[in-house]
Amino acid sequence: MSKPIKPIKPIKPIQLSQPSQVTTLAQLQRNFISDCLSGKLRQDHNLLTKNIDSSIISAQGLMGIYQNSAIANITHSLILTYPVIEKLVGEAFFSAMCREYIFLTWPQSGNMDDYGVEFSEFLAEFEHAKHLIYLKDVARLEWAFHQSSLAEDAPITDWSTLAQASDILQLKFLVAPSLSLISSTFPIDKIWHLNQDNTPLDTEIEFADEQDNDTFIVLFRQQLKTVVLPITAGDFALLNAFDNGETFEKSIVIASAKQAGFSVDDSLKKFIELGIISGFVEGIATSS
């Protein structure tokens, strides 16, 4: 015959002590955030000490529970944004890096989509990862991918009206809101592709002579899919000029200076078909 189950005693709730001077709710919230994200908790650096009933567990211990939970949640957000970086350095090392990063740069809002923009710069200065000099650019690529995935859709353009332009050279071509341009001295596009979940383990990619060539990448979204596409130096210069609001005429000059034999017709057609160039506007004539 089984023994009767003893009733579980209710857990005593954590109560705020009653200090002589009442702390406002806003101040309590600020102190809570500071204690959670202020690094290693110490008794002399715990703003909520006077407000917490520490008769059973110390205020330092109680806040440590909340701190570890907050750091775990923020770290998870960084893993979603920087999955390739996590693969390159390993789960344990990535978590340790994130902990240091969070203490230096904690979230400024509850929207985790906005968090992590400084991570690439942090990686470049993090003592234990400085020798992995390509990490910074891989992180830049991952942040651009993250931003492109969240960008608004491009407006629909009637390209048949392009033939009606009075002076095509003075047009300003518009790029899609999801466009990002990344250049690097490392083959970061290949590093990124090798570390995707859908890449077969036996995939081989040629890296020969990569050290002598810069890598140019455009990121953009096609419906729900974000694309990472390597492009030429001329294409990169052309899209960058469009993104900076240059006229078609000046953009051609800039791109041609970066790449000998650059074919603007081929590039323009390709980028319109891909949806990278999303429209155009008539340039504003300037008086002489």
What can you tell me about this protein's structure?
- The protein has helices at 25-36, 59-81, 83-89, 91-104, 119-125, 135-150, 188-194, 233-243, 248-258, 264-274; strands at residues 171-175, 180-184, 215-222, 225-231, 277-282.
- The N and C termini lie far apart (103 Å).
- A hairpin with a 2-residue loop joins strand 3 and strand 4.
- The chain has two domains: 25-117, no CATH class; 150-282, no CATH class.
- Helix content is 41%, strand content 11%.
- The strands form two sheets. A three-stranded antiparallel sheet has the order 2-3-4. It has a two-stranded antiparallel ribbon with strand order 1-5.
- By secondary structure, it is α+β, with helices and mostly antiparallel strands.
- Mean pLDDT is 85; it is low at 5-16.
